[in-house]
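Board work, copied verbatim: Metal-binding protein
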Amino acid sequence: MQFHVQETMSKGIKAKIDENLDVSALFKDRSDVISSGPLHVSLQVTGNEGSITVEGELTIDWELACSRCLDPVKLHTTIPVFDQFKPASDEDDEETEEVKDDDVIAVTGDRLDLKPYVEEVLQLFMPFAPLCSKDCKGLCQNCGQNLNEQKCGCSTEKIDPRMAVLKDLFKDEQ
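↓ predict structure ↓
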């Protein structure tokens, strides 16, 4: 997934990338990612005058922990990709902010390696709070019981912390 920047732009090279990447190393220290399948990369790389266009999609099947009850959730994620890359120049530092707001990614060096770019896109589009169902009740805050499976005997009465001292005021008189 590497391209020579100047050659790709000057010759107008068109290349198709269709491969699977093992991304399990990206998520090895994350407890919310139970398992992840290979990332299927399907991209079209096109050299233009002054830039390189990358478009296509990334797809992955993975199993994440529900953000409320921690049960496994199987998800299929498709991420659309469309970006332009251009060679970085010394003039880029002197450009005005108006020009820097372009959606063009500057490439340093003479090679464009798309693997780190693809891995970053995957991490950015990872679901923030996956749910096993829309009406997931989560875990009990006191005992940890999964409330989707059964109710627990914990009190759900909410007491204003400013008045909590008063609840024991008349306890001895009964």
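The chain has two domains: 2-124, 137-174.
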